[in-house]
Amino acid sequence: MIAKEPIEEDECLFEIPRNLLIIPETSEIRKLLTDEYSSIQSPSGWVPLLIALMYEYTNPESKWSPYLRLVPDFEELDLPMFWENSEVDKELSGTGVPDAVRNDIVSIEKEFRDLVLPFIKKHEPVFPKQCQDIEFFKKMVSFVMAYSFTEPDNITEEDSHDEEGSKPPPMMVPMADILNHVANNNAQLCFGRESLKMVATKSIKKGEEVFNTYGHLANWELLHMYGFAEPYPNNHYDTVDIPMSLLHKVAQEGRFNEELKLLEEKWQFLKSMSIVEDSGMFVVGTEGVMTEEELYQTLKVLFLSKAEFNDLKENEGWMESDDDEDTDILTNDAITRLPAEWKVLLERVAREKMCQINCNSLEEDEKLLKSEKWTRISSRQRYSLYVRYGQRQILLKLVQLCKR
After folding, report:
1. From CA 286, how far away is CA 331, in angstroms rounded?
2. Maximum separation of any 2 CA atoms in the chain, in Å
3. Secondary structure E strands in 65-155
């Protein structure tokens, strides 16, 4: 969307009444979905919307048919879930995308098999045969992933079927979904009780593109859910996930006998305090560590002497605060002031994580970015490179900070 005239900050660009949103409550089959609500609940919370969307998409009489006909061909929704597994692993190994895709496929197939297909077959006269196809269902999932919005859960106090603490389900918002995303956006969707409004967050000049935000998303999340990523350094929300198990593995190296036994005891203590977990992640962003409390406490416990650790256990996990109350805030600047032995471990972990991102090296990717080949590679390869390159830059920055 391009601004045909100058747009002022806080100006409303367009407004969508809530009765035009595609949600289970507005679908023509809303009574079916309401009557059998309990039979189509799942961890994702997406199944009711997906069933409604399948019906509306295949119904030529749907009031949303003109909108749905404008939706880009599903072939353009080139999410990694539609790539070959070998390509995902080759281009994105170590970035978090392959694991996310595998988890998606397992969840999608399970929800289709256990919930969606039985519902469709039970109401076979209502749905065309196409709705019994798992591949069609996957395309609906990709459509929701790439185009839906999620309402902040503190906007309305309307009754909901959701359990307390559950994430609000997604919704399809015609018109709003045509805007592209950048981290440095100039518009955002505002949720009101009667309608949703796209509002300018800054002045927009005539001829400039209007950009929405899909949220504070790292490049790997953008590629996973939307099929694109931003070039470095445009995405200031970019992050890299470092498995907690990797820090544990690196910390074990070079330790033997009693020293290794003490380390394992400390790790089990951290797990018992819910500070670390086997599948957990430390998240590092462009401005520092985002899971700062977890990483700081982990490093502090791992480097306690045996006597200090015994005192900690006697105090049931309670630790006296440091003299500098800001030492547990792991901004980039704060990382440089960490104890030397902490930084040595962090540097080793960062280097090990860089090795796990094993499609090309940082130098090879930099060379590709500057070469003529760059203009000839596929969009999949380009966006994958953006993900890899951004994560490696964050890790390289962490290594440099630890050396100071």
Report:
1. 9
2. 74
3. 148-150
What is d(CA 371, CA 389) in angstroms, rounded to the nearest whole number? 15
For the cut 70, the answer to whether the pLDDT of residue 272 exceeds it is: yes
Say which residue the tokens 């996973």 belong to.
224
Structure confidence at residue 159 as a pLDDT band (50, 70, 90): very low
- The kind and range of the H/E element at 179 are none
Specify whether the CB–CB gap between 82 and 142 falls below 8 A: yes
**Among 285, 173, 148, which Cα is nearest to 225's?**
148
Task: Produce one character per residue of 251-261: b if its CB has 16 or more CB atoms within 10 Å, e if not.
Answer: beeeeeeeeee
Match 């599903």 to its residue by tokens. 74
Full-prediction pTM beyond 0.85? yes
Distance CA 212, CA 199 (A): 9
- Hey, how many other C-beta atoms are within 10 angstroms of the C-beta on 293? 12
Helix (H) or strand (E) holding 265: helix 257-272
Structure tokens at 74: 């599903």
d(CA 132, CA 151) in angstroms, rounded, equals: 29
**12-45 pLDDT per residue, tens:** 999 999 999 999 999 999 999 999 999 999 999 9
